């Protein structure tokens, strides 16, 4: 399967091309998503010797995240898909963050500002794909829903901003937390392929 994936939810813009499991990727820090995303797409397609209409689908990070970044990513994905008549798989940016971790149980958090976090708990299934437990939501760090069991790993900008409060709230459920983790398009691609095969494309 050939799938193009985009993520613009954070200050890093990433694009990946999944070709039957092999992944090509580009990333650009600095928040200049509007200027860099289409040249990155063109470069990946040129490297693979493909044109957009030869792909099977697109996937993009649907958020949560930066409003401006998400608007750019959604608009570019919609425009490319419309022009090439391709289906699109929306992928949670929190799930993509969790998918990128070498861990079975992941608590992903983005900083939602206003003393809140975007929050999701994910468990990796037998196929290596993370699945959300309960639902994603927006919570104060002191009011996050408690996941079942122990051995959870915390990741994401929300942890970087509110780690003491989150760690205190979770107590023994938390095994570790990792600094400076962001979602990447290669993990959007992994979830996008799985979503496409499950019938989640629109």
The span between the termini is 17 Å
Strand ordering within the main sheet: 3-2-1-4-5
Number of strands: 10
Spans of at least 5 consecutive residues with low confidence: none
**Mean model confidence by pLDDT:** 96
Residues in β-strands, percent: 25-35%
CA-based shape: globular
- Sheet bearing the most strands, described? 5 strands, mixed
Rounded to an integer, what's the Rg over CA atoms? 17 Å
**Element order, helices and strands?**
EEEHEHEHEEEEHEH
Notes on the protein architecture:
It is a single chain. This protein is an alpha/beta fold and 202 residues long. The chain is built from 5 helices and 10 strands. It is 34% helix and 34% strand. A 5-stranded mixed beta sheet has the order 3-2-1-4-5, sandwiched between helices. Strands 8-7-6-9-10 form a 5-stranded mixed beta sheet. The longest helix has 18 residues, at 67-84.
């Amino acid at each position: 399967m050939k799938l193009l994936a985009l993520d613009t939810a954070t200050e890093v813009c990433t694009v990946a091309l999944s070709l039957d499991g092999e992944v090509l990727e580009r990333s650009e820090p600095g928040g200049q998503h509007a200027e860099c995303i289409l040249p990155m797409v063109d470069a990946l397609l040129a490297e693979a010797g493909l044109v957009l209409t030869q792909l099977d689908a697109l996937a993009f990070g649907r958020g949560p995240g930066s409003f401006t970044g998400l608007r750019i990513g959604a608009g570019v994905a919609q425009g490319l898909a419309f022009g090439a008549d391709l289906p699109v798989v929306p992928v949670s940016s929190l799930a993509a963050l969790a998918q990128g971790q070498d861990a079975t149980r992941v608590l992903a958090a983005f900083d939602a500002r206003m003393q809140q976090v975007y929050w999701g708990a994910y468990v990796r299934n037998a196929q290596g794909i993370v699945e959300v437990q309960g639902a994603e939501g927006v919570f104060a760090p002191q009011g996050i829903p408690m996941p079942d069991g122990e051995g959870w790993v915390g990741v994401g900008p929300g942890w970087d901003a509110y780690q003491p409060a989150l760690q205190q709230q979770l107590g023994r459920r938390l095994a570790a937390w990792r600094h400076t983790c962001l979602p990447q398009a290669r993990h959007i691609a992994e979830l996008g392929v799985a979503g496409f095969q499950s019938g989640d494309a629109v």
